[in-house]
Write a structure and sequence with these properties.
ten-stranded mixed sheet, single chain
Length: 444
Amino acid sequence: MHGRTRTPSFRLTTRSLAIGLTAALSAGLLAGCASDSDESSDTADGKKKTTVSVGVFGVFGYKQAGLYDEYEKLNPHVTIKENSTERNEDYYPALLNRLSAGSGLDDIQAVEVANINELTQIQAAKFVDMSKADGVDGESFLPWKWDQAKAEDGRVIGVGTDIGPMGVCYRKDLFDKAGLPTDREEVGKLWEGDWEKYVDAGETYMKDAPEGTTFMDAAAGLYNGSVSSYAEKNYNKDGELIYKDSDAVKTSWDLAMRAVEGKMTGRLKQFDTAWDQAYANGTFATVVCPSWMLGYIKEKAGEKNADQWDVAPAPRPANWGGSFLTVPEAGKNKEEAVKLAAWLTAPQQQAKLFAKQASFPSSQRALDLPEVKDAKHEYFADAPIGAIFSEAAKGIPTAILGPKDQIVGENIATVGILQAEQQGKSPDEAWKAAVKKIDNAVDE
């Protein structure tokens, strides 16, 4: 989504990151973990030949974009072996097991943004401090991204890979039929500065909506976009779980319920088959879309809709997604791993990865490179996606993260909002159902 194959979650990822693996599966993953970071024969210049293992989930794109090959040519004594687990919900529990055992770890371990806070809070000492690592320039990263991997003692356990700044993708043909502007600058002004204006635009759309269409795909997308535009949502700066009394959560929930009660949504669950089919059939006019979702929309909407989609800035800067590269202290080749992680996340490599795999850079210096700054997307009417998403990225607040963010977000979206949307529950009933589910999970 970035270049990554994921499955949704609130948090992220487009992915449902339910952390609940069976012991057998964890053991199987442990048995198959990296064990070949061995030093072997010398190279012509006398350096030890070293295999650096990289553990990832999904498709990070380094192999596909040729970055591993490029690094190996620059460093003939290094061979890179990527170990990829398809889904983070399998990958992350296995990583926790390996950290606990202090063995079986890859030299580099990717970590999803939904999990980085848990590691900074309780496992920080088990990772190399990247803020002091040779070749890592903390100032090259967006400040809010750099801070996400920072522990209380100042240790930074990972360097940023991609991010997911949000926009709003919209159907020009449906906007035109509903009497709304279609030019992306005018569209952006409809809701500039406030997610409530986005819902206002939805009310206007529904007055003359083309038959069989709704303004947005799902209220969960609206909720996610709105709540992610706040620095404080589920936790406060003291680490207390405050979602029940959070202004961000309350405001975003009320907007989602207003959209549901106004019949502005397609009552869809994002990333389900029905959602994919709705893209192809053109039954909704907007979707809150992080940068990585553009490729997904193109694939699902298909060539028959190629002239219809465009993208405008979101009401307020917000982020959905992204990951980090960490170097475990128990890894076999820490020095070479740090060098590789620093190189892969340097501005030039982040820009190359964006150009080839659509992974939006977390390096603020990469945002000014031509591959990013001048990027346009042909499918979205040549929208200047580099400029749109770069501007959003620079304005994203430094989110206060907590260990149960994923549980809170997922249950508000997939329990609370869906009960209101698909089962006709009242906002109060739906909220109580989400809270019950969250409280049960948090107390376990």
